[in-house]
Structure formats: structure tokens, C-alpha cells
Amino acid sequence: MNIQCPLPTIHRETIRLGHGSGGEMTQQLLSTYIQPLFNNAWIDQAHDSATLPWGADRLVFTTDSFVITPLFFPGGDIGKLAIYGTVNDLAMGAAEAKFLSCSLILEEGLPLETLKKVLQSMAVAAEETGVKLVTGDTKVVERGKGDGIYINTSGVGILMDGQPIAPSRIRSGDQILLSGDIGRHGIAVMASREGLDFESALNSDCAPLNSAVSALIRGGVTLHCLRDLTRGGLATALVELAETSGRAIEVEESQIPVGESVQGACEMLGLDPLYVANEGRFVAFVPEESVDLASSILRETQVGSSCAKIGRVTDKTDAQVTLRNNLGCDRLLQRLPGEQLPRIC
Amino acid sequence: MNIQCPLPTIHRETIRLGHGSGGEMTQQLLSTYIQPLFNNAWIDQAHDSATLPWGADRLVFTTDSFVITPLFFPGGDIGKLAIYGTVNDLAMGAAEAKFLSCSLILEEGLPLETLKKVLQSMAVAAEETGVKLVTGDTKVVERGKGDGIYINTSGVGILMDGQPIAPSRIRSGDQILLSGDIGRHGIAVMASREGLDFESALNSDCAPLNSAVSALIRGGVTLHCLRDLTRGGLATALVELAETSGRAIEVEESQIPVGESVQGACEMLGLDPLYVANEGRFVAFVPEESVDLASSILRETQVGSSCAKIGRVTDKTDAQVTLRNNLGCDRLLQRLPGEQLPRIC
């Protein structure tokens, strides 16, 4: 008997929103279409930035496009996000952001007043994080071919630490620190987009992470890996790091800080906070002997005041992430499978 | 008597296609909204790239987003353009492109086959120009919020010459060399978009310029300034350089090579080839004593085989560009005023 597959194959042959989720489908897209064509020592670092040889120095280089909707949300806007996002990707490579480029794709009909507000916000964020916007580009697409403003920022930074901080440096026994409570960015953006009104005001966690990272490095903490939690949330970041490093990770659900409003919103909407996007949170992998120092330094920073030790890297090499839940049961974490909340950054 | 302005003011307060033309409206947008917020020594270089201090070296940094429609056109595609465009912007700063980032904004529903073709084309172009794609980002926007694929590439390069080549180095007496015939990219894209059929096949001039620039530098030519001719065509590039350098420029229309098909298409469509986009053409400003050497070196390169001496920088400091036409009459050139052919790159 010859049974025809009832799924419309067209869906498997076109780009879907999930390809931009930062989760499983994004990973498939990268491994199928991009990595085979562009493999080199730097892209293989599988980090948010590439650490490159540059004369006597090392240069860290990264890029990010921002397509968030709405452009303005509680706690931030696309302009702030575009600066912080790239500064943060550099910070996660232990690099101090020095110079940024800015490329705008504007939609015909965008009010100039909106553009002005976004640019002002970018200027404030650049000042705050100490980066200079040095080169740019502006394109305009016809009405209906864009969505107000898309912004790309790319950045070059200089290594703060002697050696790059990267997934390949993760070791068994490393402790995992989470810089603060999770899920606020995703829920704030979604609430704003869908017009949901929660009891307590909920702001995005959108924040620059460079000061916290530089405090850790200056404070003498040995850092093995840093990763900011963006589109796929904490779970996806941990799975990626486990796979890239080939190490197993165990985390304790009870140790992961989730705000009451985020918890409530997630329950109401059927979302898992572990997969909700953040824009000002990161995990740090540090050797056991450094974890208390790291934690006390982080607690003194603005973004790390509620940091928590959430788990550790085990001796196993099955590259799996196990979450021990509040009832003591274990659950294997996967990457975000499809698209949870699109257009979040 | 109080006469009301009949123009709908709304048009003056929103983004129009002309803001992306690379001409007068783009310039107004930059000078009104961007430069006051982001002025620094590097953005003030008013070049397609920024030359930055970096330890003992100097680093050249640039960015470009590509929103061309259609994605495939005679002689090229958006992928090729995205690599060449950024390599060329670096070459115009006398820099050898080393590393590129690639950020994709994909529209839901884009056939994966199309994405694959574009990426393959990028890989071939990267190989050809000797650059490595080392970092990237992928976003997906909902159907109807994009136009298939937008690509941003940013690039870092290393100075080939001892000192940067920039508009500020233009001197009176400099001769102006044009690397080849103009207007082919704009006409080829428009013909393809509008389904126009010209008698003779017309391919875009889309090409990498790095080998030609490196040949000039290796050959010992003193280069004062280089500029590739993109959105606003030859006229806009010359006006920009005259204004940035504060020098007057004179060019001879009879010396500017325009292919027969481009000339024919322009006459038919009421376009001026001086304002039609190019993607593989540049002007070089060289001192009188270097012009013959430069010209003979360029003629040996693939992109410069039909190069021509089209004019010179005069003693005047009125920053104007004068075109002497074939009848011996002078005409002052301006930047492209509005939008001639949108979505050309």
C-alpha cells in the first residue's frame, strides 16, 4: 500500500517564522544551508561573535539585525536594543565594544518623528555603553515591503581578557551563574503587542551587559564561557552550549529566578519562562573556585543584583541539559522547537 | 493675503523612497537626523567606510544593507552584490577586505531554494574576493513585512596603503579617472524588473573592485581619493566629493564612456546615464604626474579595461561640479534630487 504524506510539502520548502526563533529550526537552517558553504575556523567558534587575528591584537566582530515589533515597548525600543544587543554580543566574547556600524532599512511612510526618536535612543545608548557609531547606510523600501524600521548594527571590539571566552573552554565542574530573573523582555514585548494588561507593570530587562562583564574580568574571575539569553531563552542557550562544548549540564529549576508577573503571564498564556526571550540576561560558566567571587562581584552590578547559581557542568559527555524540577524530577531540555514569540528582537 | 501652501505637509514628514536614493534627500536625512546625534572624527570622514585606530594598525570598517528587487538580475544577484558591495566600500578606503559579517532578514514564505541560490552566490563571491564570512545573524519577518531577502554585510579590512585614501586628500590639479562605462547596473535591473527587452543583451556591471585598487597601489600610483559609483550614479558621487573636499571639479561629457544599449535605454526612458546606478565602477583622483601610470595599470585589469580620463579638480573652491557637454556648453551638476530607480542595490 502506498500512503501519501498528508502534510503539504510546501511548508517544508519555504522559510517559516520558526526559522528566526533562534531555536531548533534556526539551527537546522544554519547547519543545512550556511555552515556547509561558509565553514572556517572563526564561524566554527559557534559563538555570538568571532575572535579574529589582527596584527598584534585580537579583534572581536559581531552583527545583529533588529526587526522587533512594536518599535517601542515597556522598558525600551528598537534603537536601544540595537546598541545593547551588539555591545552585549561583544561582551559575551569578553570584548570591549569600540566601534559600531548602523544600517537602516526604512519603510516608505515611516513618520520622521518616529525615526528621530529611535535615533535619539540609539545615541543615548551609545553614550551609555561607550561605543562610537562610525559608519552607516540607509535604504528605503516601498510601503508594505518593510515594517517601519529594521536596524542592523555590527560591532568591533577589543579583547578585555588575555584569551577569548568561548564554548570550547567549558569544563566539567564549571558552575553556572545566571545574572538575573528571566523572561521579562519577551513578556513585556508580547503584552505591549497584544494589548494585554497585567496587574503589575512589567518592563523589558533590556540592558547593556558590558559593565558587569568588565567587572568580572577586572575582579580576577576566571571565566570559561559567557552567553546572553536572547530569542530562545535560557533553555535554548544552555542546550546550544552543551552541544558546542560536548558537555552535559544540570540545572535546578528552583534556583532559576522568575518574577511573579512573568510567572503569572506565562501560566495564563501557556508559555514556559525557560523559553521566553531576554535582552539583558546572561549565564557565566566559571570554575568552582571562582563562583563565589563571581557571584559577589555580579551582585554589586546593576544587571546582576539578583544573580543566582543555577547549576553545573557534569562529567558526562552526552551534551544533554537536565532540568531538575521543583518536585525532584529530571527533564531533558531541548532547543525551542518552533517559534514561541516572533519578532521579539 | 494669506496663501496656504498647497503641498500636503504629510509628505514632508514621512520617509519617502527618495530618502534611500543616495542623492539629495538621503543627504538631507543624514545631515538633519543622523550627523547631529552621532558626530565624531570617524563618521565625519564622509566616506563609505571609517578608518579607525587599532593598536599599531589601522582598521577600516564599513556596512551596507542590500534590498534590491528583483533578487536575480542579468549579470548578478543580491548575494553577489552583498559581497562585492562591502568589499568595494573597503577597497575605496584603500583597504583589503579580510572579514565579513552577514545578517539576513528573510520573509516568511521565501522558497528555501531561493535562499540556497543566494547563499551559494555569496560563497562564490567571497572565495573570489578572498574574504571570510565569520559571523552572522538570521531574522524572519511575517509574510508581507519584507521582500524575500534583505542582506546586510559589514566588513573589516586592513589598510593597503600607508595612509588612508579619502575625500580630504583631494587637491587642485588632481586628474579624475573613471574605471569604465556607466549605467549598466541600473538599466539591467530596471529592464529585468519591468520586463523591458532591449535589442542587445545588457548585463549589470556588478563586479569586485579590490584587485584593481590593489594593482594601483602595488604599482606605486599616488591615490588621493577613490569612490565607487552606486545609487546616485557618477554625478552624485562627484558632487559629494566636491562638497566634502571643498574643491571644484570639471568633467567632459565626451570623455565619459556610456555603452550604446545604456544610451538607447536612457533615451527611451528619459533617464540621464550620469545618475543611473553602477555596482562595479569607480573614480580615482590622482595627481597629474600619476595619471598615465594609473591609467595604464587600470587598463590591464578586468574592471578597468575601458577606463577614461574624464576631468580634473580646478583651483576654485566653490565645491561645484561642472560638466562640459558635447556642444561645449557648461552645466552645473547636482546630486540626484529624488529617486530615479528605487531598490537598485
UniProtKB/TrEMBL annotation, chains A, B:
Pfam families: AIRS, AIRS_C. Residues 48-158 form the PurM-like N-terminal domain. Transmembrane segments: none annotated. Residues 171-322 form the PurM-like C-terminal domain. InterPro entries: HypE (IPR011854), PurM-like_C_dom (IPR010918), PurM-like_C_sf (IPR036676), PurM-like_N (IPR016188), PurM-like_N_sf (IPR036921). Belongs to the HypE family. This is Hydrogenase expression/formation protein HypE.
